[in-house]
Specification:
Protein name: Prephenate dehydratase
CATH topology of the largest domain: D-Maltodextrin-Binding Protein, domain 2
Number of helices: 10
Number of strands: 15
Shape: globular
Distance between the termini: 24 Å
Order of helices and strands: EHEHEEHEEEHHEHEHEEEHEEHEH
Catalytic activity: prephenate + H(+) = 3-phenylpyruvate + CO2 + H2O
Organism: Acididesulfobacillus acetoxydans
CATH superfamily of the largest domain: Periplasmic binding protein-like II
Number of domains: 3
Structural class: alpha/beta
Strand content: 25-35%
InterPro entries: ACT-like_dom_sf (IPR045865), ACT_dom (IPR002912), Chor_mutase/pphenate_deHydtase (IPR008242), Preph_deHydtase (IPR001086), Preph_deHydtase_CS (IPR018528)
Radius of gyration: 21 Å
CATH architecture of the largest domain: 3-Layer(aba) Sandwich
EC number: 4.2.1.51
Helix content: 25-40%
């Protein structure tokens, strides 16, 4: 994939860039010689991929503390031409960054991405309850804002952002969960080939009737297919209508998977394949 371009949630110094660099450096020969372009929002990165202004989009999908990244789910579901090609789980260590040394009690305002605030909720309540919180489009943008002001402000952002924007790391590892991790996905225009250690992601819309969700789950269970995640989202219609994002173990073209999907379609379940790709945890364990 020499010469390919990957879009991500920028600017430089964001957790998405940190994770992307780690993904590219882990020895994946498929992505040697690629370039990266930062975008202001997750939606912009995904839509740029859908419009083929970049070849891939590398975006956060789920955090172990804060759960699903709703923007990613919604945008991937909207772009029917896109498929998840790979996943990458990356540890996230949040840092409190300032322009100069400050005591916690001196800090008047904290900037970060909503995920950053959510992952550090207890720390902020304990040590910085007096500080206002201002939401930014990325943790890197938060670091840049603090670097460009002489106010008693702080950013919750990666350590790399301190190096890039000339900030001091006042406190490292301020996230509440010390095992904090984020699952990123690489989205593109092609379906991944069978690896033998696969998972399949699906977008489903079911009828609003008694037992419909139970019947959907039973089609997988009766065929020995392990359902690893189910996430509901508003269907963007009437209040109370939902769609479902489902992860199951196995490759999409495995016979038992095809049987389950066919049975669901016969029962008027609308299904869209979001991707079938290697499970990272299984890959790491098999090395």
């Amino acid at each position: 994939m020499e010469g390919a371009k990957i879009g991500y949630l920028g600017p430089r110094g964001s957790f998405s860039e940190e994770a992307l660099l780690s993904f590219l450096q882990r020895g994946n020969g498929d992505f040697r010689g690629v370039s990266a372009e930062g975008f202001a929002t997750i939606a912009q990165a995904i839509h740029a991929c859908g419009e083929k202004r970049v070849d891939w989009a590398f975006v956060p999908l789920e955090n172990s503390t804060e759960g699903q990244v709703s923007m990613t789910l919604d945008c991937v579901a909207e772009r029917e031409e896109l498929l998840i090609y790979e996943e990458f789980v990356h540890p996230v260590s949040q840092c409190l960054l300032t322009l100069r040394p400050l005591g916690f009690e001196q800090i008047r305002r904290v900037y970060s991405h909503p995920q950053g605030f959510g992952q550090c909720r207890d720390f902020l309540e304990t040590h910085l309850s007096q500080a206002d919180q201002t939401v930014c489009r990325s943790t890197a943008e938060a670091a840049r804002i603090v670097a460009e002001s002489d106010q008693a402000w702080a950013a919750i952002a990666p350590r790399r952002a301190a190096d890039l924007y000339g900030l001091q790391c006042l406190e490292q590892g301020v996230q509440d969960n010390k095992d904090n991790t984020t699952r990123f996905i690489l989205v593109g225009h092609c379906l991944r080939e069978l690896s033998g250690l696969d998972k399949t992601s699906l977008f489903m819309r079911i009828e609003d009737s008694p037992g419909s969700l139970c019947r959907m789950l039973q089609e997988f269970a009766s065929r020995g297919i392990n359902l690893t995640k189910i996430e509901s989202r508003p269907a963007k219609g009437r209040l109370g209508e939902y769609v479902f994002f489902v992860d199951v173990d196995g490759y999409v073209f495995a016979p038992e998977m095809q049987e389950a999907l066919w049975a669901l379609k016969k029962n008027r379940v609308a299904i869209r394949l979001l991707g079938s790709y290697p499970r990272q945890m299984d890959i790491d364990e098999s090395r």
